Description:
The complex is a heterodimer.
Chain A lengths: L1 H17 L1 H5 L3 H4 L3 H28 L12 H7 L5 H35 L6 H28 L4 H21 L21 H28 L4 H27 L5
Helix pairs in contact in A: 4-6, 4-7, 5-6, 6-7, 6-10, 7-8, 7-9, 8-9, 8-10, 9-10
Chain B lengths: L5 H8 L8 E5 L4 H23 L9 H28 L1 E6 L2 E8 L2 E8 L5 E5 L2 H6 L1 E7 L9 E8 L1 H43 L2 H8 L5 H6 L10 H9 L15
Antiparallel strand pairs in B: 1-2, 2-3, 3-4, 5-6, 6-7
Helix pairs in contact in B: 2-3, 5-8
Amino acid sequence: MATGYVAGVIRGLFDAVIQPRRFVQSRTDNYAAGWVWTAFEMNRLAVVYLVNLALYAVPLTLAGIGVQSTADAPGWFAELAAGVADPTQLWQFLSALVQNSAFLTIAAVLTLVNYHAAVLLTLNSKGILQTAHTITYSTSAYLAGLFSLVWYLSQSATTEVAAAFVVAVQKEFVYYFIDLLGSDLALPSGRADTVNVAALSQEGQVIIAALIVCVLYYLYSMYLGARINHGASRFTGFLVLAAVAAAPALYIVGTILAYSLNIAG
Amino acid sequence: MSETDPDSFVADRDEDTFGGEIVATASPATQIVLMYLVLTILVGGFVGAFLYQNPELFGEDGNARIAGLVVLGLTVIGATRLAIKYIVLYRTRYVVTEDSVRRQYHLAYREESRELPLHMIRGVELSKSRTQALLGFATISFLSVGSNRGIGYVEFDNAADPERLQNAVLELLEKQREQAVEVDDESNATTDDSSSRGQNQQADAPPASRSATDGSDRTETDDTDDPLAEPNASGGDDARRPVSGNDDAPSPAEPDARD
Lengths: 265, 259
């Protein structure tokens, strides 16, 4: 069974890189074959997502990359874990694991909402399960790869310039909308510092290139999902893609407006 | 233990499948994939290497070097994908037997076969893209009954000499149809014979015996005359089914194989 599972993971990785079409394609006949099959497939998708989430978050947390917790274990947990392992260490590991998983899960949920809204608005929806299938697979492969690379950048000593470059790009993106809306909102860490990209190490260059490839794959998988799983035309596929790509901008604009109008905080 | 070559694999596989005599075999054309592979390596490699070698092309920051790495990375992935496709196509065989059409490949001790019995074929579709038309290839789709969990179709992608394969299948379908009609006619003739014999017997029989026949003991003749009864329910239809196998009459949505 374990061999089969490992073979399945390797096959999945291979498909994700070499055959994204096959990777994203859903088994539409199962989804159309009544509520029992729909429930079965929903359950299967949930398992796929959780397993992939664990594959992403557990090694990340064990390697000390990503969010790390220093909190002490609460009393009830210490009692529960007594005799099994060191309660404090276990608590810190679990809380870091939950936080590391939360980033990917929030991103997946936001993408799912945007994606399905776009598919519905373009009158191409074949059901939420088709969307869930697309998002589950694309998120658990490409977005997880993207996050892992960003975490790695932030931890490695030889990629400091690359890490600073990635942070600067994100800050520039947020400040572009702040300036556009004329808001006086400021990020806690301030504006982006000038990064000397020419000083990027070879490793930093490769990781940034890999990040771009992951983003391209992620967008392509969304496009394929719309085309194959929802039967959208090329044009509609691009519209859905534009909606997903525009989502971060929409959330930033929404947040800026919320702060400017004193709706939030 | 060595890998069998694709042709002997075709012959070996035959016993495990529907078992009919092989009528035609063909290989998919690999030229198109090979052309794309060479094009990908040349164009991607050149653009990627050029960008990497000229880091200040997009400004003094050296962004072109990162762009070059992205292009080179995508080129490697694309070339790998095409190379795998080439190998799979090279090992793929399209087989038309007296009973079925199938595509199969055998690679690194892995076998994959997709087979459609002839009697399930409801339509044959031949399509050519511009490139395929230019190079003399086509894709033939053998369409089956359409249901959510149905077998769907078997496709011969980039088939070389597509008309030969299409004609072979159409001829087999026509032959099966003719055989079905012959069997149908024979069974009808048998039914007619027994019917007239039955009527003669009725005429010769005494009145009491005739009324018994008119009552509960219904003969095949009665079935044939009854408009609500299944046509040839016991004889003709069963005799036709194994040959034609068309459980449903072709509807307009499911074009006839001869179309």
